[in-house]
Here is the input.
Amino acid sequence: MYDNWEELKNNCMNCRKCALGETRTNLVFGVGNPNAEVLFIGEGPGEQEDLRGEPFVGRAGQLLDKMLAVIDLDRNKNIYIANMVKCRPPKNRDPKPEEQEQCINWLRNQTKLIRPKIIVCLGRISASKIIKPDIKITREHGIFFERNGTLLMATLHPAALLRNPNQKPEAMKDYFKLRDKIREICDHTYTE
Here is the structure.
């Protein structure tokens, strides 16, 4: 575990623990405010993220930014966004369990340094790793779980919402629940 954000990032950028490190264009460490009270966790970088070195910058990221804006959250101000794995799986496939295991300590260290009050898992892959292995994302999204003083919530992945736009209203309800919870327990995310 690294106690310093820059040391963590520099070491992560040089990681070659799994085969994904050999095929990446850019490692995608994360983006946002490292002092945020809310941490969003996706599954892994896609093509656009790999090219730019930043999470959620493609079509799904644009949708995520719009949904965040509705509840006054912004990746450049009051949240942090990271992924389960830091390198793009080939052809945007789901990260394999062994790839997740090789990468999870980077995410754990980020989480330790950020010390978020709320973690939001974007999609089934991160929710099953972070919240519980048998999570049913279509039934359990928007529900808060508590672990060691941190609230955890899963919501539908923005890419899934692009494929199934009729799920957007349900997902938006999750974001409104999140906004209400932030207002209830967080100190700095909203300035009234």
In short: Residues 183 and 192 are 10 Å apart (CA to CA). The first helix runs from residue 5 to 13. The chain has a mean pLDDT of 95.
